[in-house]
């Protein structure tokens, strides 16, 4: 499988100027291609193919006085900018036709020099090279100092140089990695994600929510107040913007590091992992939006998904309409809808359930049933009646579970 390895790079002041020039040239070529295709569409002309776009905007544009400075950067950077435009159009068309699953993809938009994130990409034909002294040689930029935290498993096929909002530079290598299959285990686990406890496992383990954003709220508030007092367009305002971006980057890096450690531990200890397919985008529009985004459920389940494939584990998602919370894990009875403040409840069968542990047990059982039965046949449970007085829920909704069809390549 393909993986990305990110490393911090430290360009010199001259190299920062060269990178800024490359960022700007790639942005101009991307915008020129988008503008040309939009003009052709408005004029009723046919769609401009990729080869024609490259010939007009790179080969011929370098010969004009207005775009002669495009020759100061590597041609691969410009070609990859057009490749990004083609990918954006392809994703938009497949989403428009219904072939692409998930949320609808918007058409490509123009890139701005004021965007918080700037990036360029070099492929193998650009002849970038990792030198013996650990530096990264890029054409027309020079040898960049890289902070290596681990070794690459194979020769990279491409490298992207990224500048984030905090002014940091990163080198992102795409490498082909061989799956490291772990010894088979016996335990399987279901995970119920929440806000009070970030994750509750079916074996009763509860992982407290670290709430990194809430813990940094006081410092962020102080930095935002200082930013609001700065005059727009001033140098001090640019410095204040960088300070706010660095504070947010520290929160995001801390959350990502913690989620990587937790997901690796869960995958190593269990042969199969099942989670609930939560609608994070919908929950992000409720009054719990700040806490939902602070938790980072989507990033965590994505880590579980690709690590399960890499280490030879089983990963599955249970349908979001599956009533894991109000179903008794002992007898299977589906009770009435419960308020969020009800953390424990009793079933008429005599069972006493912790709300989150019971949900994790139901997720585990549904994931196992959805994966396969003893003969490997697919299992689809029957219809589950909706709770009375529950809004926007219909009796004909099938609350069956489903497993994930594939895994996204990072």
UniProtKB/TrEMBL annotation:
Per UniProt, residues of the Transposase putative helix-turn-helix domain are 1-46
Outline the extent of the Cas12f1-like TNB domain: 297-363
Q: Which Pfam families match?
A: Cas12f1-like_TNB, HTH_OrfB_IS605, OrfB_IS605
Residues of the Probable transposase IS891/IS1136/IS1341 domain: 180-283
Query: What keywords is this UniProt entry annotated with?
Result: DNA recombination, DNA-binding, Metal-binding, Transposition, Zinc
UniProt GO molecular function: DNA binding; metal ion binding
Alphabetically, which GO biological process terms does the record hold? DNA recombination; transposition
Transmembrane ranges? none
Q: Does the keyword Transmembrane helix apply?
A: no
Name the PANTHER family for this protein. RNA-GUIDED DNA ENDONUCLEASE INSQ-RELATED (PTHR30405:SF25), TRANSPOSASE (PTHR30405)
The family assignment reads: In the C-terminal section; belongs to the transposase 35 family.
What's the protein here called?
Transposase
Q: Which organism is it from?
A: Actinoplanes cyaneus
């Amino acid at each position: 499988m393909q993986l990305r390895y990110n490393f911090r790079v430290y360009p010199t002041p001259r190299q920062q100027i060269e990178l800024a020039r490359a960022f700007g040239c790639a942005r101009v070529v991307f915008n020129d291609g988008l503008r040309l295709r939009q003009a052709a569409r408005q004029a009723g002309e046919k769609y401009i193919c990729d080869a024609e776009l490259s010939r007009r905007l790179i080969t011929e544009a370098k010969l004009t006085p207005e775009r002669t400075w495009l020759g100061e950067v590597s041609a691969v950077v410009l070609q990859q900018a057009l490749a990004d435009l083609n990918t954006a159009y392809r994703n938009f068309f497949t989403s428009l036709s219904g072939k692409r699953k998930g949320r609808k993809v918007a058409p490509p938009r123009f890139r701005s020099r004021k965007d918080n994130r700037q990036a360029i990409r070099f492929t193998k034909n650009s002849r970038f090279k990792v030198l013996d002294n650990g530096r990264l040689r890029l054409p027309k930029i020079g040898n960049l100092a890289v902070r290596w935290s681990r070794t690459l498993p194979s020769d990279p096929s491409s490298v992207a140089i990224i500048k984030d909002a905090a002014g940091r530079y990163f080198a992102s290598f795409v490498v082909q990695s061989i799956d490291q299959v772990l010894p088979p285990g016996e335990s399987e686990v279901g995970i119920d994600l929440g806000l009070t406890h970030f994750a509750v496992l079916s074996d009763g383990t509860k992982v407290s929510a670290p709430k990194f954003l809430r813990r940094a709220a006081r410092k962020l508030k102080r930095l935002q107040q200082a930013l609001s007092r700065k005059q727009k367009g001033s140098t001090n305002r640019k410095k204040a913007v960088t300070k706010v971006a660095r504070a947010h980057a520290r929160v995001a890096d801390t959350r990502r590091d913690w989620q990587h450690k937790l997901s690796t531990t869960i995958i190593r200890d269990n042969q199969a992992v099942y989670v609930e397919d939560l609608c994070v985008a919908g929950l992000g529009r409720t009054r719990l939006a700040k806490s939902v985004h602070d938790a980072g459920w989507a990033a965590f389940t994505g880590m579980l998904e690709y690590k399960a494939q890499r280490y030879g584990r089983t990963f599955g998602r249970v349908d979001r309409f599956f009533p894991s919370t109000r179903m008794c894990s002992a007898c299977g009875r589906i009770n009435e809808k419960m308020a969020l403040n009800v953390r424990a409840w009793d079933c008429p069968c005599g069972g006493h359930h912790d709300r989150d542990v019971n949900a994790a047990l139901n997720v585990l059982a549904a994931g196992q049933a959805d994966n396969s039965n003893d003969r490997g046949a697919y299992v689809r449970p029957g219809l589950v009646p909706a709770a009375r007085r529950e809004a926007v829920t219909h009796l004909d909704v099938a609350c069956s579970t489903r497993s994930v069809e594939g895994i996204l390549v990072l």
